[in-house]
Structure formats: structure tokens, C-alpha cells
Amino acid sequence: MSDYEPEVIERWGDTDAFKQSQARTSKYSHADFAAAKVDQEAVTERFATAFGNGVDCASVEVQEIVLAHRAAISKWFYECDYEMQKNLALMYINDERFKKYYDGRVRGLAQYVHDSIMNTKN
Questions:
Q1: Cβ distance 73 to 43 under 8 Å?
Q2: pLDDT of the residue at 11
Q3: CB 116, CB 47: distance < 8 Å
Q4: Under CATH, which architecture does the 29-118 domain have?
Q5: Is the pLDDT assigned to residue 102 strictly greater than 70?
């Protein structure tokens, strides 16, 4: 059990997304988890590059990254619709662990990812 698992179960254990994620990941090998991490990191790097280059978070380019973010989550963990993605975006700026992940790359990246997701039309 990970350090975060009790919190995850308490917060989301009754949700369809949690159940779907548990069903998928229970079958994953170490290679599957590594591939999922590569996909997630690739999206984060795309956000960091756009942010570093001053690309507007509402631009078509960044909105494609938002879609890639949602697609990576849907591919590996659970169906991530726009509403779920907005909830994640709120965690990225309100939960220090998520904020540290993004801002550890580039200061301000958590806010940029949040703003990019919130600027999505659907």
C-alpha cells in the first residue's frame, strides 16, 4: 500500500473513476506503469515547453496539450472527461503535492496547467 492509498480510498473510493482505475491498474506490469509515467511526463513536458515559450494557455497549441493530458489519463487510468479534468486542475494548484510536482519543473507551471485546462471549451 502506498503512503497515499488510504487518503485516495477515503476521498474517491466510491467513485466510478477510482473503481475503473483500480480495475485497470491491478492488471498492469512494471512496464505498463513505466509506460504510463512516460506518457504523463511527456504531456507535462509539453506544458512546460509552452509555458517557457510564453504560449497563451487559451491557444490552439496549448489546448491540444490539454486534450493530450486528458487522453493520457483516460488511456491509463480512467475515463477523464472535461469535468473530471477541471477537478484535477483545481488539485494542481490547491494540493501542495501536485503543485510541487508541476512547480518543481518550472515555477508557475501548476497555475499555467490549471489555467490551460480551465480555458478549455469542452
A1: no
A2: 57
A3: yes
A4: Orthogonal Bundle (1.10)
A5: yes
